Input
Amino acid sequence: MNFLKIILFVFFVSVFYTAVSQTISKTVDMSFGNIAVSGPGTVVINPNGSRGCTGGITLPGLTGTVTAASFDVSGTALHTYSITLPVIGSSISSGGNTMTVDTFTSDPSITGTLSAGGTQQLKIGATLHVNGAQASGTYTSGSTFAVTINYN
Output
């Protein structure tokens, strides 16, 4: 059984501005934590930070860091914005070994609404696809993927 540590570091964020200043900043990287592999399967990080697994994947007691990605969105109070997540998977790697991360989800899911104070936290989860003979290692993202915010 192989033990893997999975961290997905980099998000590229596109923001389309209106006449009023709007900002978004990443506060937490996504991390799938430690997993044990005895066959192919998936690990899902939900936007609330919980995780689950399927197939030949188990989640050891020593979890490592498990987090959904998190962003702070700020701007005009009660203003809405739409969220567009990647539709194409992203690769993570450790040396020459790779896995795919896809099926991105968010909370809020399609449209966010800034609070009366003009802020909201956007959290993003995803699915990690693990091969049955996945090599042990610390897997990280060497490339970015886009999370697009369009202010309404």
About this structure: Confidence is low (pLDDT under 50) at residues 8-19. DSSP finds no helices and 16 strands in the chain.
